Please model this.
Amino acid sequence: MIAPAGSSDSSSTPGSVPGRPCSTCTRTSSPGICRSRGLPESTRSTTSVALNGVPLLSLLGSQDEAIRRLEQAFPDVRFSPRDGEMQLTGSPADTASARRVVSAMRDLAREAVLTAADVDAVTRMARSAAHPRVEVTAEPILSTRGRVIRPKTPGQKQYVQAIDEHTIVFGIGPAGTGKTYLAMAKAVQALHREQVSRIILTRPAVEAGERLGFLPGTLGEKIDPYLRPLFDALSDMMEAEAVAKLMEHGVIEVAPLAYMRGRTLNDAFIILDEAQNTTAEQMKMFLTRLGFGSTMVITGDITQVDLHQGRSGLVSVQGVLQGIPDIAFSELTSADVVRHKLVTEIIEAYDRQKGNA
Model:
């Protein structure tokens, strides 16, 4: 619960919580009990996190979206913004965990207004044994339309670092972990910095068996349904007019995987999306398109293979290329999901079912 500014407790030790009770307590509440929390005052503590100049609006989120999600995550903690800090009241264990989350939220809010997804990601890390410290701060990749694109989890941070340090990177993980989105942001960044002269985006049109010539319509009409997710990510990072102009001049190319055959791709940032739906032969064909001055990022989810027959090229490539210098495999997990919190729970439920099978 978020208490009104000025109404929060000022003590930082258990058993000493002056000030008026929270808004759901009444004069008839039992002495020494916060009825909304059910905790005796002797077991409550208050701590605070300095905002260090971060605007309160950025921390609370648009229409208080972020702070409401924080309250849902910590229902037994009272959050009170006041005098350049956020005060937290509750049990020592709850306030300690919530304090870690608020500190990480403050660091993220320096760059942009927080969202519920940001809070979900930070909260998962705070409660995960795999992440004893909540470290989500990383250099922004892009700033566009008032939004900052940056890694939001340790796994995403390692993935982006791998892209910075290797020529070929495989990003493998479930939906919602930012595999393609972050790779796209790095591609746009590289283009802006003139590290490459073009961006090439591709994915297998497996639903059509790659036989696009048999489909009705122009080439653009044939491939649009299969490449639309790449266009959507790109439009998040650049103005539509700029994208159209760059595509017209061949600076940005979006094409099905079949159209990569026979080419050598120099001075380009190349992204192969949905790579779990490539065959081993297609994967080899794609990787050998690499030219001088280029970077390749291959993304996919090996649990969502749609191939009708044959083994996924993304699965087999790990055994073939593992250990080769300048090639990195970055594995993301449900802990790196930054979509709706239900997406994480769905992924984990299917993982449990697979483990019990």
Notes: The CA atoms of residues 31 and 102 lie 30 Å apart. The chain has eleven helices and 13 strands.
